[in-house]
Every structure is written in structure tokens, then in C-alpha cells.
Target: PTS sugar transporter subunit IIB
Amino acid sequence: MQGRPVKILIACGSGIATSTLAAQGVREICEERGIEAVIQKSNMSEVMSKASQVDIVFTTNMYREELPVPLMSVTALITGIGEEAVKKKCGDLLEEVASKI
Model:
């Protein structure tokens, strides 16, 4: 049982459009796996400054900087290409992060 909600940051180019779609997908994965989460959205330029305030970062664009928390692209949640594999990987990573809280 996790001690507190997992703090998730979801970033896209503008912080509005695709991050909203990705947030819905991540929220559904959390619900399916019984993970309590708090999700916030941002644009890609804010990822580095916000990463230290969250437990995990998901992006809809490629992000190459090293972060102090796990990072994963969830573009497949938007495109549908390879979606099931990404949902599993995302869920497994979320469970791992939640187990450490």
C-alpha cells in the first residue's frame, strides 16, 4: 500500500492538448492498477524545473535531459501505435514508483 498519491507530471509541447489526452490515459492506467495519483500537466520547457517536485514524468515528445525521477514517453497513448505495450510498461513503472513511496 502506498503512503501517499504518486505525483505525476505529464508534458507536451504546449502543456494543453496532447498532455490532456495522455493524462486521461495515465489516469485510467492508475485506476486499473489501484494506484492513487495526482497528475499535473506542463509544457516541455518546464519539465526540468518541475521534475524535482514529482515522482515520475511522462512526455508526449522526445525528452533527452537526465531527470532526478523516472521518465517515460507515452506518445503511444496519443497515436495508438504500440499502445498496449506502452500501457503495460507505464503501469509497471507506476507500480514500482508507488511501492517506494
User: Anything to note?
Assistant: DSSP finds four helices and four strands in the chain. The radius of gyration is 12 Å.
